[in-house]
Amino acid sequence: MRNELPKGWVRTTLGEVCAMNPRMPFDDPMPEHTEVSFVPMAAVEEESGRLDSSQIRTLGSVRRGYTPFSENDVIFAKITPCMENGKIALATGLKNGVGYGSTEFFVFRPYEGLLPRFVLHFLLQPSFRETAARQMSGASGQKRVPANYLFTHEFSLPPTREQERILAKLDAALSSLERAEAAARRAQERVKRYRAAVLHAAVTGELTRGWRDAYWKNKKDKVETGNAQLQGLLATRREHWEESESERRRFAGKKLTDDRWKVGYPTPTPPTVDLPELPDAWTWISIDQLASAVTSGSRGWKDYYSPDGPLFIRSQDIRSDKLDLAEVAHVRPPQASEGRRTQIKLGDLLVTITGANVGRAAVVETELSEAYVSQHVGLIRFVDTRPVQIAHIYITSPEDGRKRLLASAYGAGKPGLNLTNLRELSIPLPPFAEQIEIVREVQGRLSAADRLDTALQQQLERARATRESLLREAFAGRLVTQDSNDESASLLLERIRATREAQSEKMKGRRMSKSKVKAKTSGRRDLFSVLKENDGPMTPEQLFLAAGFKPPQVDQFYRELTLLRDKIREQKPIASQAKSWPLRAHVFLQLKSGAEK
User: Fold this and answer.
1) What whole-number distance in Å separates Cα of residue 485 and Cα of residue 118?
2) Which of 159, 200, 524, 584 could make an S-S bridge to 548, C-beta 3.0–4.6 Å?
């Protein structure tokens, strides 16, 4: 059931009150050397309604291949994910009043009496964008909002004076919200810098400088240095290898008559040179020296969605440098050998090795009954689990381990790490007692930072909900009171229609003498003739293509379609039928019975 309109408002469509992808409003052509603003997609802010018009180009360099617009037009990103993210803006501050931008923009030019910022806020509504996203068509990653959906979308038009009152109230409320959001985001950035500073101080020894001085003073002769630990870890690593190798040989039926097979022990890669200086009693150790295994999942596990199978840990399951099992997938149990190699155990360190968030890391801190890693996750198993926390802290420190890992990542489009990169990474190794103190300090400080960050995120979510509520109330006519002295929107709509008709006649008059030549050269066909020849219903997209229109001619197409409105019957599906209609059509067009041109 449609909502009742506020008094003085009138129901219409976006395409009736706005020119869509209009021609530039200049009678005299501008010289090719004229400077104009250039607005790529990146220059449009998300959800703020603003754009950066500071890039300047000559008209001749952008006239072809870009979308033109003029001062106070509203530009709307039609492609995913830009549309969903709110890349919609009022074009202001344009050089010489002209801008050119991405071909992925639709342009709305409101007719006189409809305020451009009113249209801007209407398009920015989250509910509008969510509905538009469901109408998108095209290949994955390249989906776009159809022009006819926007053109025919219902629009409730208030009187101009009421638009002004609504915008005044919106401006005050939204400005306050924006200041609060900006403050929250600045605070989030400070929290982010604080976290990085804590991690850096932890792995350079600065965080525990005072503790270390006191501890050494009291227990100097009892402290096991990092170098002594290193020797012990290397001995333990060799013992692990010999045990697993002897087991492997016995399983293969080979007799162990002597110890000559032990010479096959793979010597671990030592720490790299040119490393920062560490505090006394600390030492550098490579992941290879710490680990009994460095591996990743098999590339052969393609069909891993098995609802009853073991857990399957993917790169997206490592969030905020923690293991997040909220949306974990499942895998069919692998073969025995593959399972032993890739099965996760308590104390393992997991590192994402491919994708946009390469280098994220998580410690397995709970016992998992059965879980395996995907090929996008590196698994590091330590010969002694005590250093795993300090290794995790180092790898997640933006200025330290993560920076080193990212520097070794390969591939520009989809950066990745290989297992050699993980093995060769060097880790600072403090005395075990100091490691315990470092972990305690880091966890305490980062837990406080996490609580603050959660509170700030909740503040941003509340601001977003408030913005959505304000816009919903504004376009339902409940944000300000109606004034009986305002001119009715029905009169405004009549003037807009008259303006559209006059502009259409003017454009037809300009082209009258050359219309036949243009029709032949452009390959365009008359809409009435196309509908008559088809002898059946057509979607606007089908009619648009069959008549030979090009994408920049959307507004011209709908102007010509408007001239036929008395001869055309529209069919719209009810909600329960919409999904079953061919092409998920929003509307079908067909000539009325007996219609004559």
Assistant:
1) 20
2) 524
Please tell me the predicted confidence (pLDDT) of residue 248: 83
3-state secondary structure of 199: helix
Asked if 100 contacts 66 with a C-beta cutoff of 8 angstroms, the reply is yes
Q: Cα(516)–Cα(525) distance, rounded to whole angstroms?
A: 11
Which residue type is seen at 109?
R
Question: pLDDT tens across 167-221, in order?
Answer: 999 999 999 999 999 999 999 999 999 999 999 999 999 999 999 888 877 766 6
Res 303 pLDDT > 80: no
Burial of 257 (0-12, 13-18, 19+ CB in 10 A): exposed
In total, the chain counts a number of residues equal to 597
Q: What is the dihedral of CA 201, 205, 207, 213, to 10 degrees?
A: -160
Residue at token pair 């923690």:
322
State residue 428's pLDDT score: 96
Residue 185 backbone phi and psi in degrees, to 5 = -70, -40
Of 317, 381, 300, which is closest to residue 344 (Cα–Cα)?
381
- For residue 78, give the 3-state DSSP assignment: coil
Which residue shows structure tokens 């550098």?
284
**Interatomic CA distance for residues 473 and 374, integer angstroms:** 48
The answer, yes or no, to whether the previous bond of 81 is cis (omega within 30 of 0) is yes
Q: β-pairing, 98-101 with 35-39?
A: parallel
With 80 as the cut, is the pLDDT of residue 580 above it?
no
Using alpha carbons, list the distances in angstroms from residue 47 to 89, 129, 192, 456. 8, 11, 23, 19
Q: Which one is predicted more confidently, 457 or 539?
A: 457
Write the DSSP assignment of 153-167 as a string of letters: -EEEEPPHHHHHHHH
DSSP per-residue codes, 262-293: GGG--PPPPPPSS-----TT-EEEEHHHHEEE
d(CA 224, CA 430): 9
DSSP letter for 258, please.
Answer: S
Exposure string for 508-547, b = 16+ CB within 10 A, e = fewer: eeeeeeeeeeeeeeeebeebbebbeeeeebbbbbbbbebb
In tens, the pLDDT along 83-135 reads 999 999 999 999 999 999 999 999 999 999 999 999 999 999 999 999 999 99
Tens-place pLDDT, residues 231-267: 999 999 999 888 888 888 888 888 877 888 888 899 9
Q: In what side-by-side order are the strands of the sheet with 311-313? A: 329-330, 311-313, 371-373
SS3 381: strand
Cβ contacts of 33 within 8 Å, gap of 6 or more: 58, 59, 60
The closest of 315, 326, 358, 320 to 450, measured between CA atoms, is: 320
Average pLDDT over the chain reads 87
Helices 554-563 and 527-534: angle between axes, nearest 10 degrees? 70
Interior/surface letters 52-79, b for 16+ CB within 10 angstroms, e for the rest: ebebebebeebbeebbbbbbbbbbbbbb
- 3 state SS of 109: strand
Percent of the chain scoring above 90 in pLDDT: 61
Q: What is the pTM of this model?
A: 0.74
Tokens standing for residue 547: 């008549």
